[in-house]
Amino acid sequence: MQFHVLNGDSLAATFKETNLSGEVIVCREGLVNGPVASQNLAQFWEERAAYLAVTFGAKREEYFLKVAKELEKLIQVPANAEVCLWFEDDLFCQANLWFILSLLATRQQAPQVYRVFPIIKEGEDHWQGFGRSSAKRLEQAYQQKVPFAQEDVKLGNDLWRAYQQQEARTLLELSTSTSACFHRLQEVCQAQVDRVSRDGHSGRPERVVREILASGITHFPEVFKEFFKREGVYGFGDVQVKHLYNGLRQAGEFGN
Fold first, then answer.
1. Under a CB-based contact definition with an 8 Å cutoff, are residues 97 and 192 in contact?
2. Residues of the chain whose pLDDT is less than 50?
3. Residue-number span of the structural domain to which 246 is assigned
4. With a threshold of 0.70, does the pTM exceed it?
5. Alpha carbon distances (Å) from 115 to 63, 97, 149
């Protein structure tokens, strides 16, 4: 039996056009924002639901149905199954991937896990990930899937624990690990460390949005486009960038 864990509904829509078989599990979380340091999974879901309700107006019931319940399927995956993790290399996807590996790491009899990387053609932006993928290219990506060894799953779990606790030094140390299941890990972990505000200085994403605004680009669609061009490593969608944008506007740093 085979399971495909897809990062987001957009990828899931393209996946439906392929000839690949197996059960689909859609990861609809965005663990680059909000609380992640919960002591147990039940508390984790509650704190995530509360944060998303307050910050983005998400409904608690919908979160548990479409997000928590969906991801908890991983806990019940048969030990003889194959689990393919379709995630990109940016921080947004990696935080979700690390969390999923932490769920799989708790299994006494874990299924065989594979990483499916997006195929990036020469001249394409690496951080576009699966965004440019056709159904045919997804099928090609699947054929090139990379198996996780036990130490690779452990690395993902360790990365999640360091990310949870905001242990910058540990995260950077782990990022130097060699694993075929993780690409550009040092760049991504450094981006995470840089996004945290320290000593009164803004984190890197906020600083970059401020620089874009100072350059005269203030209309949000153009701000978002420029941010992705400069900082694709974060993998931020419009929701994350708009949150930064609105915060600066509310602080009076630029006009309406």
1. no
2. none
3. 204-250
4. yes
5. 26, 10, 11
